[in-house]
Amino acid sequence: xxxxxxxxxxxxxxxxxxxxxxxxxxxxxxxxxxxxxxxxxxxxxxxxxxxxxxxxxxxxxxxxxxxxxxxxxxxxxxxxxxxxxxxxxxxxxxxxxxxxxxxxxxxxxxxxxxxxxxxxxxxxxxxxxxxxxxxxxxxxxxxxxxxxxxxxxxxxxxxxxxxxxxxxxxxxxxxxxxxxxxxxxxxxxxxxxxxxxxxxxxxxxxxxxxxxxxxxxxxxxxxxxxxxxxxxxxxxxxxxxxxxxxxxxxxxxxxxxxxxxxxxxxxxxxxxxxxxxxxxxxxxxxxxxxxxxxxxxxxxxxxxxxxxxxxxxxxxxxxxxxxxxxxxxxxxxxxxxxxxxxxxxxxxxxxxxxxxxxxxxxxxxxxxxxxxxxxxxxxxxxxxxxxxxxxxxxxxxxxxxxxx
Length: 404
What we know:
Number of domains: 3
Strand order of the largest sheet: 3-2-1-7-19
CATH superfamily of the largest domain: FAD/NAD(P)-binding domain
CATH architecture of the largest domain: 3-Layer(bba) Sandwich
Strand content: 25-35%
CATH class of the largest domain: Alpha Beta
Number of strands: 28
Number of helices: 9
Helix content: 10-25%
Structural class: alpha/beta
Oligomer: single chain
Shape: globular
Largest sheet: 5 strands, parallel
């Protein structure tokens, strides 16, 4: 049996481990565009400013490929999948045959049409190479503008601020991290940024970059001009699926997979940012570009490819972050709606915000900011009745009764 893995992020590496645990003799070939050991993209902002050493980025040791008997094609890009031939074609023309194929190519940053990455001082921040390019540029930076108030953008703002650089964040939405935080938690985060001297412009659209002699000088919004020697765009990501055009693999927002991470083509599986899998709470087929999701899906895909029929229970949103001294955890839903009750355990005015979301007595989400230790108690209760668990030293059922 020949297993081909395209992508060496968390999904690909966990799939390799599962395959080898089940099939000790099958051939595993890894194709990866970056010529690195597997590393965590979450750490790229810290690596950018030397807050984190290079060796601390890696999620597997240098002997990982050898220990798992993996034949590698590092620094190579999959150009095409020929389904009828069971083969992947690389950019150099090499043809690699497979019996089972896993697509785990992850995402790439979305670059707005008005952003020119060829301009000196303008960068995206997604991979190790981006971090290294920005790092070499930092000595000449006094002012930086981050376009995008999501997780990547705010992580970049934090590390640059820690370096003594004046940082401004421009976000089109009316709150920071709108996909992960409600208004109350976002307001707490906004205050934390302000306390550290970071300027934030919400509900603001960038009109253009000001460039002179191919060097960026600043960012022009509708109402403001922000001086900047460094501009980082962090306005979202897109799945890496271009090489599957005309492959016959069903693609909607991502590769549509079943509970075994198997596509409509029986020999092809998908996991991670590019996999459109079922939601744990709703059953809806969706993309979930999260580290933990990629790990879980990679394990299921690898086991399925090697013959173990373990079903994926479904994905759910989860974010655990610490920004500007404020720890935040969100899980599942973050805001109420039809039939969803919001139970506030602690108001933001106390410096601690804790909210549960319940539907028919079942936990469908939580959002904690300021104090997050007890969130772990409820992680495994998502989708279950709360009276099946405990809330620290207080029974969750009692919390419900008290706040009903």
